[in-house]
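for ur thesis appendix - Sigma-70 family RNA polymerase sigma factor. copy paste whatever u need, i formatted it the way the template wanted (i think)
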Amino acid sequence: MPPEDDSRLAALYDAHAPSVWRYVVHLTGDPAGADDIVQETLLRAWRSPRILAQEPASTRSWMFTVARNLVIDDVRSARRRHEIGVADVPERGQEDLTDALFESLLVEEALAALDYEHRAVIVHAYYGGCSIAEVARRLAIPEGTVKSRLHYGLKALRLAMQEKGVTR
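the 3d part is after this line
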């Protein structure tokens, strides 16, 4: 390295290293790690001839950006996450489906309490995902009748659920 590069690198260090170090400590909370990041940032500046050719004051934002990217890379690295390899993959925990089972049994019992016409419209519309027109076509009834049966069927279903102790 020519002597002028040495002086520019020294000037770069004197002008920016303390502020970059404080910035990295602020980001990471790790003074020892900040030393490494500042050293790597200065190394990258030294390897980049265009950075050394600029005035030290104009490289400040470049150094902060490089330091920030190095912190991000370090946080994302496997070394930082302390990953430990294992021979067998652990079993996945399963969600407790007991409440969902009881809720489905309550809904099934409440639906069974409805008359056939109301139950058929509700099952096609909500469980079958059909539109009013599709329900009307499948059950061979007018769309207005589907809407009416849905309204009164849901009202009856709500009442049946309340009788079973489900409140909302």
